[in-house]
């Protein structure tokens, strides 16, 4: 119970932009004033919170405002993408202090590649000058599917040989730090929540556009992970029965319709982009940026490719928002920027026309404001585990 109450107090302070007094904390948490005072003293002694001045609110003694101490705890986030691996060191409020990015090593064995990430994590911490004892752990975001219970990457697309790779245990051994692991899209939505980018929304869908297409979910202010940690696998929702064939054998899956790889291939077929040159390969991100630039410059074929993609994505968003009745939709992921202009110009109107709740409440749609949200979110997984109250803390085991 003590651990749970402490997490409640920490979470309340974290969520308050201006900070809270002990009296306000007692009222919001429903705890006795002495209990709150004792918890706050422990948190102050541990350096997790700090006193941030006095505030007068009527007659009586001014109240001392408490805020989260950014230097009280740190975490490292690692985003493993088929194309790029990103490592970020963040403080307790999600500010990035150090970052490292390089192409993902798919030539080495997965085990050697992950072990090398462990050495890079140690180097990032050393370079930052942060007290290693205040680094709470490492969060890892990977493509799904994952085995969350064992911290294992199961068989991610576009990463040949990465079948049942024990990422968590390898990184724990390489860094000597606790490691938590989640899907990349879940980490991204945790970043939105932890950094306050969600605003006042307590329910949202995060559409992740990376090498694949996925969705992150927050319902009732809680991140939804599903029974195995693999919620949000939306790639096989059919949006166009006459669309391109998917690797599942059906046609028109959003995975096949809207993946950046598919859009670039269509652009090559229509002559918008030059044929691929094996001797001089251009990265997928550059190809997608070139497609978006062609559309912006008035190329009708390029505009058509992106418009069709937007309509198909709108069908997915409409299905999700009608099913889940959320307040907000956020788009993000490494390949979001080139698509943002077309999607934000077209998707909201289509979704509003199809929405069953448009006469009840507004549905806000926007692109993420975060940069490198997957690595930041991976670090925030550590903060979430440390700071957020979990009802499981109240349960006693069989011996209790």
Kindly describe this structure.
The chain has helices spanning 2-15, 22-29, 33-46, 110-128, 167-175, 184-194, 254-258, 260-269, 284-296, 300-324, 336-354, 373-387; strands spanning 49-55, 63-68, 74-80, 84-91, 96-103, 135-142, 146-147, 152-153, 179-183, 204-209, 213-219, 222-224, 328-332, 364-367. By secondary structure, it is α/β, with parallel strands linked by helices. The chain has three domains: 2-69, Orthogonal Bundle (Arc Repressor Mutant, subunit A); 74-191 and 375-387, ATPase, nucleotide binding domain (Nucleotidyltransferase, domain 5), CATH 3.30.420.40; 201-368, ATPase, nucleotide binding domain (Nucleotidyltransferase, domain 5, 2-Layer Sandwich), CATH 3.30.420. The strands form four sheets. Strands 5-4-3-6-9 form a five-stranded mixed beta sheet, with helices on both faces. It has a five-stranded mixed beta sheet with strand order 12-11-10-13-14, sandwiched between helices. A hairpin with a 3-residue loop joins strand 10 (204-209) and strand 11. The radius of gyration is 23 Å and the shape is globular. Residues 393-400 have low confidence and may be disordered.
């Amino acid at each position: 119970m003590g651990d749970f109450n402490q997490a409640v107090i920490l979470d309340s302070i974290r969520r308050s932009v201006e900070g809270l007094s002990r009296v306000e904390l007692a009222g919001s948490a429903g705890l006795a004033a002495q209990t709150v005072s004792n918890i706050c003293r422990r948190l102050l002694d541990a350096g997790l919170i700090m006193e941030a001045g006095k505030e007068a609110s009527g007659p009586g003694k001014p109240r001392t405002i408490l805020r989260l101490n950014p230097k009280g705890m740190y975490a490292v986030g690692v985003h493993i993408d088929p194309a790029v691996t990103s490592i970020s060191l963040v403080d307790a409020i999600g500010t990035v202090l150090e970052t490292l990015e390089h192409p993902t090593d798919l030539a080495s064995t997965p085990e050697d590649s992950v072990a090398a990430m462990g050495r890079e994590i140690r180097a990032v911490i050393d370079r930052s000058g942060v007290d290693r004892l205040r680094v709470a752990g490492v969060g890892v975001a990977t493509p799904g599917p994952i085995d969350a219970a064992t911290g294992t990457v199961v068989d991610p697309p576009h990463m040949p040989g990465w079948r049942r790779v024990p990422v968590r245990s390898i990184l724990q051994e390489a860094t000597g730090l606790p490691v938590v692991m989640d899907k990349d899209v879940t980490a991204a939505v945790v970043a939105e929540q932890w950094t306050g980018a969600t605003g006042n929304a307590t329910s949202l869908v995060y559409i992740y556009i990376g090498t694949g297409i996925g969705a992150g979910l927050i319902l009732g202010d809680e991140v939804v992970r599903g029974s195995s940690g693999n919620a949000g696998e939306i790639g096989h929702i059919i949006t166009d029965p006459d669309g391109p064939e998917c690797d599942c054998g059906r046609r028109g899956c959003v995975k096949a319709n809207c993946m950046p790889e598919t859009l670039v291939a269509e652009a090559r077929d229509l002559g918008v982009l030059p044929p691929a040159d094996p001797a001089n390969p251009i990265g997928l991100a550059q190809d997608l940026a070139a497609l978006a630039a062609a559309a912006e410059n008035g190329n009708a074929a390029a505009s058509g490719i992106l418009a069709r993609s937007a309509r198909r994505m709108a069908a997915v968003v409409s299905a999700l928002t009608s099913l889940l009745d959320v307040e907000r939709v956020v788009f993000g992921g490494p390949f979001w920027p080139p698509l943002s202009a077309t999607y934000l110009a077209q998707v909201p109107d289509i979704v509003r026309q199809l929405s069953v709740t448009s006469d009840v409440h507004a549905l806000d749609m926007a692109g993420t404001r975060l940069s490198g949200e997957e690595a930041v979110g991976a670090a925030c997984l550590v903060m979430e585990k440390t700071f957020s109250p979990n009802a499981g803390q109240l349960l006693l085991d069989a011996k209790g």
